[in-house]
Amino acid sequence: MMCVICKTGSCSAGKANFSSFVKDAFVVVKHVDAMICDNCGEAYFDSKATTYIQEQVELAYKNTADVEVMKV
Ligand SMILES: [Zn+2]
């Protein structure tokens, strides 16, 4: 899989942190399975990882481990 960001790197399986603003909080989901560009470091999440992220974001509101919520 070629990286669409830098268009020169190739991606290999690894772990990445997903972070995003969700609702009124900044959510970080750690150690998510991803394809990571060996050139620029861009992480790509497949549908399975995306589902996992969504589950973790929901759980974040219930104070479950592996997720940090920073209220802004
Ligand atoms: Zn790249």
CATH topology: Ubiquitin-like (UB roll)
Shape by Cα distribution: elongated
Low-confidence stretches: none
Tell me the fraction of residues in β-strands, as a range.
Answer: 35-45%
Would you report the number of β strands? 4
What does the radius of gyration come to?
13 Å
Content-based structural category = alpha+beta
Q: Biggest sheet, in brief?
A: 4 strands, antiparallel
Q: How many distinct helices?
A: 1
State the end-to-end CA separation.
Answer: 36 Å
Q: CATH first level: which class?
A: Alpha Beta
Topology order in helix (H) and strand (E) letters: EEEHE
The CATH architecture can be given as Roll
What is the mean pLDDT? Answer: 86
Task: Summarize the amount of helix as a percent range.
Answer: 10-25%
Break the fold down into its secondary structure elements and pairings.
Elements: E1 11-22, E2 25-37, E3 43-44, H1 47-60, E4 67-71
Bound molecules: zinc ion (ZN).
Task: Give a short overview.
This protein has one helix and four strands; from the N terminus they run βββαβ. By secondary structure, it is of the alpha+beta class.
Characterize the structure shown.
There is one protein chain. Strands 1, 2, 3 and 4 form a 4-stranded antiparallel sheet that branches. 7% of the residues are buried. This protein is 19% helix and 44% strand. The protein has 1 helix and 4 strands, in the order βββαβ. The structure holds zinc ion. Residues 3, 5-6, 9, 37, 39-40, 42 line the site of zinc ion.
